[in-house]
C-alpha cells in the first residue's frame, strides 16, 4: 500500500523492527507495547486491516496537517467512497460540508460560509489543502463536533441545565459515567479554573458530549454498519484519542467489531517524556515522531496594540503567537473579551485573570463586520498583550 511508503518517505521515517530503548528522535515510528520500532511493512499491514483510521493532531502544528493530507490522499486512492470526519466544525455546518464535497463552494467560500475564524480559529492556511482534496475528489465530509454553546453551557451549569431543544442536538445514548476518563482529564482542571466535585463532573460531561457527538455522527455516516462497506478517516485533536479514552470507546460502541488504527504525531520531546514515564503505544496505535513545532512566543498573546475609540487597534500580530494561530489580523479592532469592553491593554489581563488558560471569546471588528474569535492561551503564555 502506497499510504505507508509515501507517509514514511515524506517524514523521513526509518525502517526497522524490534524493541527500541534509545531516546526517540524525529523519523522514528513506533507501534505496539514496549516501544517496538516498526517498519513500513508492519504499518502497511495495520492500515490494510483497518476500516477506520483516526489521525490525531496538534491543532496549531502545520506538520500534523501535512501528515493528515498524505493519509487522506492515500486512503482516498484505495477507497473512493472514503468518509472524512473532522472535529474542526460543528454539526450545524453539515450543509456547507455537503456543498464543498459537491464542488459548489470553493475552499475560500467554504471558510467564509462556515465562519472558520470565529468557529474554529486556527490558521486556515494549514487546513485548506485538506479541504481542497476533499472537494477535488468529491469525498463525503462530515462535521462532527457538538455545538460550542451547548458544550460551554454543560461545562458551566451541567447537562441538566439544557432545554429539550438543546438536548435533542446531542446523541440520545450518551454515557457520562467514565471514571477513567475523568482521571485522565483531571490535569486540565487547574488550567481551566475547575475546582470542586460538581465543576469537575460538569467539565467531564462537556468533554463526553463532544466525544459522543463525534462518534454518533461519524458512525451514522458509515451506516448501515458493517454492510455499507465504507471506510473512514477522522481528524481530531490528540486528546480525544491519546490513551484509548474519549472518542474511541464511543466509536466502538456504535461500530461493533470495527478494526481501526490510530496515528498519533508526537515531538521527540513528548515521546521521550512518555518513554521516561513508562508509557508506550497501545496495540492499535502508531506513533510518528516528528520535529517539534515552532515555539509560540512566551508570555504574550502576540499583539501590538494602540488605544483608540471603541477598543484597541491591532498594529501587529506576532507570527506563531496564540493570536496569529486564531486568525487575528493587523487592522482588526479588539473591542471586548467575553463581552467585557476594552479600553486599555490592561483590560485584557483583567478580563481573563480568573481563568487565564480557559477559552475566551475575543470580539473583533474587521472591515465593518463583527467577529467573535475563541483563543486559549497555553500555560506558557500570560494573559497579556
3D structure, described in words:
The chain contains 15 helices and 13 strands. It has 385 residues and is an alpha/beta fold. The chain has a 7-stranded mixed beta sheet, sandwiched between helices. The protein is globular. The N terminus and C terminus are likely disordered.
Main attributes of the structure:
alpha/beta; seven-stranded mixed β-sheet; disordered N terminus; disordered C terminus
Concise summary:
The protein is an alpha/beta fold and 385 residues long. It is built from 15 helices and 13 strands.
Q: Layout of helices and strands, plus pairs?
A:
Layout: H1 2-11, E1 29-30, H2 40-49, E2 52-57, H3 62-78, E3 83-90, H4 94-101, H5 107-113, H6 116-119, H7 124-137, E4 140-145, H8 148-157, H9 164-167, H10 179-185, H11 197-221, E5 232-237, H12 247-254, E6 260-267, H13 268-276, E7 285-290, E8 303-308, E9 311-317, H14 322-326, E10 333-337, E11 340-341, H15 346-352, E12 360-366, E13 369-375
Parallel strand pairs: 2-5, 2-6, 3-4, 3-5, 6-7
Antiparallel strand pairs: 1-7, 8-9, 9-10, 10-11, 10-12, 12-13
Cα gyration radius (Å): 21 Å
The overall pLDDT average reads 85
What portion of the residues fall into strands of 2 or more residues?
15-25%
The dominant shape is: globular
Which residues sit in consecutive blocks of at least 5 with pLDDT less than 50? 1-20, 380-384
The helix content is 25-40%
Supply the number of helical segments.
Answer: 15
Identify the strand order in the major beta sheet: 1-7-6-2-5-3-4
Report how far apart the termini are. 49 Å
Strand segment tally: 13
**Class from helix and strand fractions:** alpha/beta
Order of SSEs, N→C?
A: HEHEHEHHHHEHHHHEHEHEEEHEEHEE
The quaternary structure here is single chain
How would a crystallographer describe the biggest sheet?
A: 7 strands, mixed
Amino acid at each position: 500500500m502506497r499510504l505507508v511508503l509515501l507517509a514514511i518517505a515524506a517524514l523521513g521515517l526509518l525502517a526497522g523492527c524490534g524493541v527500541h530503548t534509545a531516546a526517540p528522535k524525529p523519523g522514528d515510528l513506533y507501534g505496539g507495547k514496549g516501544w517496538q520500532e516498526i517498519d513500513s511493512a508492519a504499518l502497511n499491514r495495520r492500515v490494510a486491516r483497518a476500516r477506520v483510521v483516526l489521525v490525531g493532531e496538534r491543532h496549531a502544528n502545520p506538520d500534523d496537517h501535512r501528515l493528515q493530507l498524505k493519509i487522506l490522499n492515500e486512503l482516498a486512492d484505495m477507497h473512493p467512497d472514503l468518509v472524512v470526519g473532522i472535529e474542526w466544525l460543528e454539526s450545524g455546518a453539515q450543509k456547507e460540508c455537503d456543498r464543498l464535497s459537491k464542488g459548489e463552494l470553493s475552499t475560500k467560500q467554504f471558510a467564509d460560509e462556515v465562519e472558520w475564524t470565529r468557529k474554529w480559529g486556527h490558521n486556515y492556511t494549514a487546513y485548506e489543502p485538506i479541504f481542497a482534496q476533499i472537494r477535488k475528489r468529491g469525498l463525503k465530509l462530515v462535521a462532527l463536533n457538538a455545538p460550542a454553546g451547548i458544550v460551554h453551557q454543560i461545562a458551566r451549569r451541567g447537562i441538566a441545565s439544557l432545554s429539550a431543544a438543546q438536548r435533542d442536538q446531542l446523541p440520545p445514548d450518551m454515557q457520562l459515567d467514565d471514571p477513567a476518563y475523568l482521571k485522565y482529564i483531571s490535569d486540565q482542571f487547574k488550567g481551566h479554573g475547575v475546582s470542586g466535585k460538581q465543576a469537575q463532573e460538569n467539565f467531564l460531561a462537556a468533554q463526553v458530549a463532544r466525544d459522543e457527538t463525534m462518534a454518533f455522527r461519524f458512525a451514522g455516516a458509515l451506516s448501515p454498519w458493517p454492510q455499507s462497506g465504507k471506510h473512514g478517516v477522522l481528524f481530531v485533536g490528540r486528546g480525544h484519542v491519546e490513551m484509548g479514552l474519549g472518542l474511541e470507546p464511543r466509536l466502538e460502541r456504535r461500530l461493533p467489531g470495527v478494526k481501526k488504527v490510530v496515528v498519533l504525531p508526537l515531538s521527540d520531546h513528548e515521546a521521550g517524556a512518555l518513554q521516561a514515564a513508562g508509557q508506550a503505544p497501545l496495540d492499535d496505535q502508531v506513533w510518528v515522531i516528528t520535529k517539534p513545532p515552532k515555539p509560540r512566543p512566551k508570555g504574550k498573546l502576540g499583539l501590538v496594540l494602540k488605544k483608540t475609540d471603541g477598543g484597541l487597534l491591532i498594529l501587529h500580530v506576532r507570527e506563531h503567537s496564540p493570536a496569529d494561530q486564531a486568525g487575528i489580523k493587523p487592522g482588526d479592532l479588539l473591542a471586548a473579551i467575553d463581552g467585557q469592553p476594552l479600553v486599555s491593554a490592561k483590560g485584557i489581563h483583567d478580563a481573563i485573570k480568573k481563568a487565564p488558560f480557559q477559552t475566551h471569546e475575543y470580539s473583533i471588528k474587521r472591515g465593518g463586520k463583527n467577529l467573535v474569535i475563541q483563543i486559549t492561551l497555553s500555560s506558557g503564555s500570560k494573559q497579556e498583550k
